[in-house]
Design a protein that fits this description.
The protein is mainly α and 394 residues long. It has one domain. It has 18 helices and no strands.
């Protein structure tokens, strides 16, 4: 029997909404990297005006480090759904999944070379190839492995950070910046040609995709994919209406706890240990809290219809993600509007909301005609040998 991609009628609206919200959160975080020399500065000390400092603080607490775990869990959720469907139809899951992930890796590589150095697709494809080798396991084992992988390395990092924090740090410990690298990035992106930006992009990518980062992905991205796969096997999202009280408790507890942990570097004297707790534990806890809250909202009658723009963006997540990069490079780089380093965070934040709104509306109109986004259709064609049919079904 020939394999086919998951049909529209089989999709769960809540998953698409979660994915769409994740895209907004990811863009809010990525906007720092589009507009500032992120690899070479500490953002907590980079901004100087009170308004920028305030905006960064709340973006750091509410957004930073909380949406890549959510997106990774959704990625794992999708892999598990595809695996279960393939087994139900008697198809080979692994052959097509490897092909899909290799194609995704290539798309990510082109993303880096042509648009932006901060791509996540290659890391997701890399971790996905490992995840599919474990996907047949029972959900409790997937959850245990995910928690063990994440807890082991990140617990060690937190311990080392605590030891480092025992040494009294001077007030300017965190105020670091590679001045030469910062100036090079500003010159290339803010005033250079596309080729200047390309050369700088390769330099930035060498930091983003260093061997250490690939290894760290196994302990920061792969675990969330496995946790997401376990959730899919338990059908936690599909059965949410049967366990509302548990979802309410989970949402309230984890959102409160996550925000408390993420506020630590701001409410106490900042140390490496508090930074580690904020990012490595506060971020993921808040991610699950956000997901739980969104799942609860989607259980309210007509909520999924009200949140339709998020769902449409979520159904076209690959297209929307890459369009975000295209639009942002045209806004900030010199070969576009040349606004790199020239806008305050308040303006940038509202700009992000505007960009996302436009892309969500675009997704809605596109899916009135087609069943998938253009890049999803291309991805499907390469994997399955067929393009998406017309006449979408919103």
């Amino acid at each position: 029997m020939q394999s086919t991609p998951t049909a529209t009628k089989e999709r769960v609206a809540t998953i698409d909404i979660l994915r769409g919200v994740s895209l907004l959160g990811i863009l809010l975080v990525n906007m720092f990297a589009f507009s500032t020399p992120v690899p070479y500065v500490d953002l907590k000390t980079y901004f100087s005006t009170p308004l920028d400092i305030s905006y960064h603080k709340w973006l750091d607490v509410l957004v930073q480090g909380s949406f890549y775990p959510l997106f990774a869990m959704l990625f794992g959720y999708g892999l598990a759904m595809q695996q279960e469907k393939a087994e139900r139809l008697g198809n080979s899951f692994y052959k097509l999944s490897v092909k899909r992930l290799v194609v995704l890796f290539i798309i990510g590589l082109l993303h880096v070379l042509l648009l932006w150095w901060g791509d996540i697709l290659m890391m997701y494809a890399f971790c996905g190839l490992i995840a599919i080798s474990l996907i047949r396991m029972k959900p409790q084992f997937l959850l245990a492995i995910g928690l063990l992988f994440y807890g082991a390395i990140n617990g060690l990092v937190a311990l080392l950070a605590y030891i480092a924090s025992l040494v009294k740090a001077s007030s300017d410990t965190f105020e670091y910046a590679d001045i030469q690298a910062v100036q090079s990035a500003i010159k290339a992106y803010g005033g250079g040609s596309w080729m200047d930006a390309f050369q700088q992009r390769l330099t930035d990518a060498s930091v983003q995709f260093s061997p250490t980062m690939w290894i760290m992905a196994l302990f920061t991205i792969l675990p969330f994919m496995l946790i997401g796969a376990a959730a899919a096997k338990w059908k936690l999202i599909e059965s949410a209406k049967n366990h509302l009280s548990k979802w309410i408790v989970t949402a309230v507890v984890l959102i409160v706890l996550g925000i408390i942990l993420k506020m630590l570097p701001y409410t106490m004297d900042r140390t490496y240990f508090l930074d580690s707790i904020q990012m490595q534990f506060g971020g993921p806890l808040l991610a699950v809290g956000y997901a739980s809250a969104i799942i609860l909202i989607c259980c309210i009658p007509y909520a999924t219809k009200i949140l339709l723009p998020f769902a449409m963006a979520g159904r076209m997540s690959l297209t929307v993600y890459l369009l975000e990069s295209l639009v942002c490079t045209l806004i900030f780089y010199h070969f576009g509007l040349g606004l790199y380093g020239k806008l305050g965070l308040d303006t940038i934040t509202w700009l992000v909301l505007g960009i996302y709104a436009i892309l969500a509306v675009f997704s809605m109109f596109w899916l009135l005609i087609f069943r998938q986004g253009p890049l999803e259709s291309l991805w499907k064609h390469i994997t399955y040998g067929k393009f998406s049919e017309k006449r979408g079904n919103i």
